[in-house]
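Module 6 notes. Inverse folding takes a fixed backbone as the condition and produces residue identities as the prediction. Think of it as a translation problem where the source language is geometry and the target language is the twenty amino acids. Below is one complete input and output pair. Work through it position by position during the lab.
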């Protein structure tokens, strides 16, 4: 298994959206209370939370009386979560479950708002935010949106993007010559594959599979020589 990049788990908002500071502050509250770590332990089996609050918008104190800025009236927060990404968000008998779903629910409690989760793909983040179909994208890499056109919120986790091969058959990247690389349909993963000269020098190209389990099936059945995906996704999918 080779590390070929990193995937960052952030909150993403429309540019200068006034809810961004409030939701960022609520994430910090969940971190302080241990709720983020509990969600990580529940779904990943380990505490992978590493909150980075640098350079993110937060509620400002009132200029005159020192009180916090007024919190908007109760509302429903529409949270975009990644579709078909176990263990982050996936459908189970018609019910949406996963770590991102649990975090979204906890955000609603912290804010005193209702929450509705909307499954989206990483390539849909920009369009979903711009159209107003979602208020915040939860758990997506900032590389999925145009720099400067959206507000990047708090990062709460990161993981390696890895290239994995079968237990036997490939011992070095040189042996990928003229072989296919399978990937999940995630812009950050595909970009990492294309940017790694060790891969592009030898492999014939990437083949996109829509889910982690399909990638693993393709690898097991010899349809591709290696697969690239988020390590969290790989660890979870390999258990089943």
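Target side of the pair, the amino acids:
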């Amino acid at each position: 298994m080779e590390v070929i990049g990193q995937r960052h788990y952030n909150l993403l908002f429309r540019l200068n959206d006034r809810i961004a500071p409030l939701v960022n502050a609520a994430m910090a509250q969940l971190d302080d209370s241990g709720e983020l770590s509990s969600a990580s332990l529940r779904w990943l089996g380990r505490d992978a939370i590493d909150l980075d609050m640098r350079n993110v918008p937060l509620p400002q104190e009132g200029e005159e009386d020192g009180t916090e800025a007024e919190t908007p009236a109760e509302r429903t927060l529409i949270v975009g979560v990644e579709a078909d990404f176990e263990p982050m968000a996936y459908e189970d008998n018609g019910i949406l479950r996963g770590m991102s779903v649990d975090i979204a629910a906890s955000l609603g409690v912290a804010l005193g708002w209702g929450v509705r989760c909307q499954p989206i793909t990483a390539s849909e983040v920009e369009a979903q935010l711009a159209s107003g179909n979602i208020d915040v994208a939860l758990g997506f890499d900032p590389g999925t949106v145009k720099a400067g056109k959206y507000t990047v919120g708090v990062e709460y986790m990161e993981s390696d993007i890895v290239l994995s091969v079968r237990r036997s058959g490939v011992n070095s990247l040189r042996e990928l010559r003229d072989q296919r690389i399978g990937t999940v349909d995630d812009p950050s993963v595909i970009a990492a594959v294309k940017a790694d000269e060790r891969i592009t020098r030898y492999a014939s190209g990437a083949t996109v599979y829509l889910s982690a389990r399909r990638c693993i099936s393709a690898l097991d059945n010899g349809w591709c020589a290696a697969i690239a995906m988020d390590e969290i996704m790989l660890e979870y999918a390999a258990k089943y």
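Reference fact for the lab report: Strands lie at 2-14, 76-82, 90-92, 95-97, 114-120, 136-140, 150-165, 180-184, 205-209, 226-230.
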